[in-house]
Amino acid sequence: MAQSSLFQSVERVLAEDGRGRIGYTPGLVDAGTADEWFAELRDRIEWKAERRRMYDRDVDVPRLTAHFRLDDDATPGLLEEAADRVAAATSSSFNSVGLNFYRDGRDSVAPHNDHLYELEPGFPIALLSLGSTRRMTIRAKEPPRRVLHVDLEPGSLLVMSYETQLHYTHGIPKTKDDVGPRISLAFRHRPATPAKGRRGFYR
Ligand SMILES: O=C(O)CCC(=O)C(=O)O
């Protein structure tokens, strides 16, 4: 029997009001499986190092990334299995997964929200963490002030409802702490046709 089925993972509700719902579930995936998935993804994924235009210069994106559609035969089976677990835990469905690889504390993602035109209305974003624990900061954009610092442990799931993307930013700040590498799997339900005039997400 898989170890994960021996333990009940219990969600902690971090926010739930008119600005949306944020829930954190430690141990959705047991530690052994989280370690195996981390090693397999780290070693087998063709990670992409991107550069982005920032003001007047091109800079390295401070993490490695990869993206897969979940209905694509080329998507690694491990990601389909992870998607099934996350779908069961959230009673939702997902058709895309974005992978982020933070090699050390210098890697990060700046505070941002997902563009709503890149999400199917009503569907949440679910972040499954593997590898080392990294802290996420979630900040309300408008008063009343709310700042959540969430230590995303390996095997944990953070779920943000669709509405939260209007009202909060989320990011993984850089840290001087001696942190090891982390991979996050960001599950989303993308619209079949991105809103008119907008860039499609599938890449
Ligand atoms: O690595 C994470 O958990 C955050 C990823 C993220 O913010 C995103 O994919 O939009």
Give descriptors for this structure.
single chain, 203 residues, alpha+beta, Jelly Rolls, eight-stranded antiparallel sheet, four-stranded antiparallel sheet, 16% helix, 39% strand, disordered C terminus, binds 2-oxoglutaric acid
* Fourth-level CATH superfamily: Alpha-ketoglutarate-dependent dioxygenase AlkB-like
* Strand content range: 35-45%
The span between the termini is 37 Å
Under CATH, the topology can be stated as Jelly Rolls
Helix/strand order = EEHEEHEEEEEEHEE
- State the name of the first-level CATH class: Mainly Beta
Major sheet size, sense and barrel closure: 8 strands, antiparallel
Number of domain units: 1
- Average pLDDT confidence is 92
**Any low-confidence stretches, pLDDT <50, length ≥5?**
1-5, 197-203
Count of β-strands? 12
Q: Which bin fits the share of residues in helices?
A: 10-25%
CATH architectural category:
Sandwich
The secondary structure category is alpha+beta
**Backbone CA Rg:** 16 Å
The kinds of small molecule bound in this structure are: 2-oxoglutaric acid
Count of separate DSSP helical elements: 3
Question: Tell me, what's the shape?
Answer: globular
Layout of helices and strands:
Blueprint: E1 12-17, E2 20-25, H1 31-44, E3 48-54, E4 57-69, H2 77-90, E5 96-102, E6 109-112, E7 125-131, E8 134-140, E9 147-152, E10 157-160, H3 164-167, E11 168-172, E12 182-188
Bound molecules: 2-oxoglutaric acid (AKG).
